[in-house]
Request: fold
Amino acid sequence: MHNFEFVKPASVADAVAALGRGEAQPLSGGQTLIPSMKARLNAPEILVSLTGITEMQGVSRDGDSLTIGAATTHATVARDAASDFPGLAALAGQIGDPAVRNRGTLGGSVANNDPSACYPAAVLGTGATIVTNTREIAADDFFQGMFTTALDEGEIITGVRFPIAQASAYAKFLQPASRFALTGVFVAKYASGVRVAVTGASENGVFRWAEAEAALSAQFDAEAVAGLSVSPHEMISDLHGTPEYRAHLVRVMNQRGVRAAS
Amino acid sequence: MPKDDGIGASSKRREDLRFLTGNGKYTDDINLRGQTYVHFLRSDLAHGRINSIDTAAAEAMPGVLKVFTAADFASAGGIPCGWQVTDRFGEVMQEPKHPILAEGKVRHVGDPIAAVVAETYEQARDAAEAIDLDIEELEPVVDMVKALAPGATKVHDDLTSNLCYDWGFVEDNKDAVNAAFESAAHVVSLELTNNRLVANPMEPRVAVGDYDPWNDSHTLYTTSQNPHVIRLLMGAFVLNIPEHKLRVVAPDVGGGFGSKIYHYAEEAFCTFAAKVLKRPVKWTSSRSEAFISDAHGRDHKTKIELALDADHNFMAIRTETYANMGAYLSTFAPSIPTWLHGTLMAGNYRTPLIYVNVKAVFTNTVPVDAYRGAGRPEATFQIERLVDKAARELGVDPIELRRKNFIKADQFPYQTPVAVVYDTGNYDATMDKMLELADYANFESRHAESAARGKLRGFGIAHYIEACGIAPSNLVGQLGARAGLYESASVRVNATGSISVYTGSHSHGQGHETTFAQVVAEMIGVDASSIEIHHGDTSNTPMGMGTYGSRSLAVGGSAIVKATNKVIDKAKKIAAHLLEAAPEDIELKDGKFSVAGTDKSVDWSGVTLAAYVPHNYPLEDLEPGLEETAFYDPSNFTFPSGAYGCEIELDPETGKIDILRFIAADDFGNIVNPMIVEGQVHGGLAQGIGQALLENCVYDDQGQLLSGSYMDYTMPRADDVRGFTVDHSCITPCTHNPLGVKGCGEAGAIGSPPAVVNAAIDALHRAGHTHVTHIDMPLTPSRVWAAMNR
Reply:
């Protein structure tokens, strides 16, 4: 790891100011950034920690939505969201291992937009709103392909506002080595309809499966999607699964999610 | 019941107190005054020609003491290979030079090009980034079959091809084997891959070199399974340091699984550089570095065929195997696919004719050498997959086909057609025990219960044989070993009766400090707590060959027995003098010497004190003191065997396999510590199941390692291996070592892969997927699903 300067501001404003200096990068839980720095693949001059900012911490309910501070760890979400939004809490409780869950944060995961990460499926699958220091971004506009988001340079996610679903579940098929999602599907049922978001499968990152959403909105039953399929085109191919296998898992995990939510 | 801490007692492992409390002393815990740190700049290309290496900028970096390249090693030899295989035409294998740092070419990702020594590790890494390399990329050779094609790029320009050797065994049987296939009623064949693995011991490799200029002597602290072997290889062949000026210490070592047998370039580098710089030099491998610098395991491609007569008797086996050597020959690499593999191809069966062909191939990949089981898992996997496939094709019960062809209990000793003589075994007994423990009789009802839940249940069987207790030195010498394979022990009885045992074996997790003490305690009849086992330091242990091949108790333990018997013989003479009796009338029981038929006795400490305070002592006939050394060279291998049963449930929607039960019924001969044996089997099973379902070391066609971290290389986790039923009550003692023991360290990794794969195929066939006759390991969900939906 190369040397770097470390700052830990107490407010969003101070963090934004710190990020404006030189080659600075925000550091949240560090579950991706620190390993890449240790491997000398990344060498920021300044690391701006976001974990000392009180307004970016915690889970709070406001009517039909649950707002989670961007620097809230997965372990905290798994615990504190369990009664208000069990589907979301269960997803947080399946990320990584206990060490990862006690360091990794919602904002870090969403900003990184790893195509195999779990949180993007929940954010997109609930139609959540990403709140930054400058604006609010709808989930449908936020995720723009593998490791790519709508965030501008120096823009910080401060929180995410999740509409609470009537029923929801995340069905994750583990990549056996990393235990990221080989394919994970978040299913959420709202009065307005059902949303289905898929992570781990596509080269373009998290995506919504429109046919499944339509079928499940008409009938919230696993059998409603039994005959549907997604194309293996642009699905990820790696040591752990072919595009065809991932396309198949999208349907299987969607059905499992629906069964778990029913 | 066994006496406390004697043979047969499940004594708690005394070494675990320090291991479990973080107080073990590993090589990385050793920090010497004035210590420097080395970082190796390693190739990120699989194959390239080094045009130039400019180290000037790096040498000017803060803290840098020196940047070494191959030019600094002109006076040193290459890393030697310890085994020379002769091919089927009578020619010796092709043996390339293995330089400490790359000379002229880089030959695999991870090949060390330059070494930066600095005051701190981070300074060394920083400076390595300032080295200016001009390396011309060459076409890599990755696939073994393509590597042997005419005109293929050569890994080593000075060799005639990428073929290390083309070995035939037994070459004189070849025509008879072919004739048997011509006349066979049935021929069953199978093509399979034995997947490449990375050993991944918990402790990565570490080396600390130290030099004392006032005595011109060297010390190397290293993570080794065999410090004497390292001293011999490095001293005699690489750095030209005589033994009396070179001490090698392997302190606590956190697992090896074979990968810490070999002499590595980093060890020679640290020893050499410490003298150049007159300061200690330390290297600690990162986990990423381990993936590209520790020797890998397995990596065979095989076609195997079985000829059967009309009554389903096995007539002949014929195989053709490609074995990957990687870019250089690791210490014992050539022996693994040959003598540790071909000699096991009889398995547990009376197959009269066997011919094994092995082509060992150089590729632009990390060197491949022994990994837990080493050759024997490859043999067992072929045989046990093929016998299972034969049963399916013939429509007979796989258990009955095995039993029909088993070497029967009354046929031992049994001369196989592949050179070895099995001394003892009872394969029907272990099969019976496994089926009993598996509750195999009720499998059908469990299968139906799974089917009702939409899951496919299957039961897989494997029966294995292995050759352990490596090995008779005169025999392995004829086969090409450049070392003897005896073991040594010194038993030093101290004046007050406590005992210090110095073994040439090395413990890197096996529990020798406990087990060996139990053996000596049993023989003398003293408390095990009065016995200490020392290992790992060439300066105080007799020259020994170390720990691998499940040899420590069978060979190292036998050396301890021999030395202890010498001690007892002398002690009896001393006791006879003290008791005024004839030595042949002295009996030793429970730590007390007595004169047969009388009540005259002297206890152990009375004799030991007399030995060191020889006031009343037969000095004219007997030297003072009580300390003996013995070397034990086995007269044969030992042959553990066992029946393994694996019951799985397969999710047809995802292809995911869950192991519900795993039963291991082993015959390890006599058992010294049942708890430790059970632990050894558990560890072996975890690694075998890891190979079968999870682990895979994969290169792309450019020689880049795709599985270079735990993000992609799947190590078994606790929830992948949820519990085993382990039995070792079937005992046919080894006939040729004094303890009657056979060895247990590798069995789990040898017997389990075919049991797992056979279970998966069984589940699929029961569900009507009869087109799936084989799936290559690891049986990942994706592969299983693809096979089902082909």
